[in-house]
What does this fold into?
Amino acid sequence: MNNRRQHCLSMLRICKTLKAIKQIHASLVTTGHHTDPFFAGKLLLHCAVTISDALDYARTLFLHFPNPDVFMYNTLIRGFSESGTPQNAIFTFMDMCRKSVDPPDSFSFAFVLKAAANYRSLKDGIQLHCQALRHGLDTHLFVGTTLISMYGECGSVQFAGKVFEEIRQPNVVMWNAIVTACFRSGDVKGAQKMFDRMPVKDLTSSNIMLAGYAKAGELELAKKVFLEMSLKDDVSWSTMIAGFAHNGCFDEAFGYFGELQRVGMKANMVTLTTVLSVCAQMGAFDFGKILHGFIEKSGFSWIISVNNALIDTYSKCGNVGMARLVFERMPDKKSIVSWTSMIAGLAMQGHGEQAIQLFKEMEDSGIRPDGITCTSILYACSHAGFIEQGCAYFSKMMDVYNIEPTIEHYGCMVDLYGRAGKLQKAFEFACKMQIPPNDIIWRTLLGACSIHGNVELAEHVKDKLSELDPNNSGDHVLLSNIYAVAGKWKDVATVRRSMTDQKIKKTPGWSMIQVDKFIYSFVAGEKPNEITKEAFDKLREIMLRLRVEGGYVLEVVSVLHDIEEEEKEDSVSKHSEKLAVAFGIARLCKGKVIRIVKNLRICRDCHTFMKLISKVYGLEIMVRDRSRFHSFSNGSCSCKDYW
DNA sequence: TTAGGGTTAG
It folds into this structure.
């Protein structure tokens, strides 16, 4: 019997797929061991916990087992608690209380409380707490710790505190749990107090403080703790990098990465994915390439998450070819994140057909899309003008893949109709949504009204926005631009006045360009300096050449005021991306691709301008705007003028 | 205790 047990265990150890699990199950049935609690328990554990997609099979196994013991109940609860449907863990737990001969133990409570925490159900959490109390397990170290975590996740720091104070001698894990719970509930001061009270602090406790401060945006406090730490590990460093990156302080995030290397600490895979995501957000292509080289050399290139980050980085830095190369190189190891990143990357570049083709390949290879994959394919359709395909994917998502649409999916659909000029359809769709439309939905529609010049609907939509997000400067500017295009100058003035009255400031546009090792940024309306003077001089020269050789005429519709034509020209010609591209032409070597990152969307005039430069100067220009890429070459753009 | 894919707009 012992030999058989050993054999079964070693079989399970090497078993990685559901198919292999089924074979082991079949062999247990032939020998009659499938009803033995030992074998059944181990098999169940493997299905419910170890293998990622075998939870349904675990449930079937469980249901066919005549008298499941506590271990089997706990295993199924554990599997469900980490799944997409943690509520099932609660149902299994209730079933256990009703039917099982043995009562739930500390493990049952630890797992089921984790489930309540995972879907943030305070109501279920409290009921489970009462049950734990009834069984005398509420002060058990494991159960108590999960109770604290659960209350923290559910935002109830008071209850977490009450549980904590009941424990006579909390260990360090429990202290960490109460500090985390405070941070989770947004109680930074409480976390600080608890941290000060801790009798013993280990490295983990300090790391929790770093992460908590950083997530709360308290970067100075995080820095202080970091400096005071006598011992720092790789987690401390990557927490700092991620913390600064999350708060938009990319330079400092990079700084910590440099410092980490200087002190001789080794970057782990989390650090690398974090730094890559900073590159992606900044559009820092050259640095991304250096990191890629480092990853290859240091043996991280087989890790799925690192590859996913590389795909995303290359995509967001405009090199979809390199992204594709990384993607193709991971044949059996693509995760749903890999597929989604690649589809989104293609979509951002305006390669709608290729995105759809890849989605098909994914389906053919038996991979099920998740909600985010569906958002990406809908995004691809809306940005390529594929209305029918977009609608078909939306239906397929619900009917075939059983995915409930979220606000993001609805957003894509409103964009799909709106961008294509079907404004009425877009409006009706927004009104009929299963969830209440948020500001983004209405803003999408306002953007569509701007593209297609529909003043009446724009005013109606702006009213909705004024209820949901009244101080958003972009909405005011957009409405003002819509009026300006329609020549309604009185209305333009009214919007302008209300912006001044409410102290709403227009976000200035900026563009960045890297030349050699430096990043230069150009901000609309900033004071002239040496760099901008150089850019302006070059820009004047370029404009002249484009007028003569390319027949360029400024498009000046999208300017706020009713001002003289000449002044409008001046305003449009100052757009930051024009200055950045002029600077690039002045400073970069011939033949080098000009890469620009911009914070807002590119305007129609700048778009025409870039197309002409690419033709007249024989250059390749890449502009990453707020939401996508424009690759200009030989007089045309990859977005096919649809954006 | 750290990370990684998604909707809009200025």
In short: Residues 530-550 of chain A form the longest helix (21 residues).
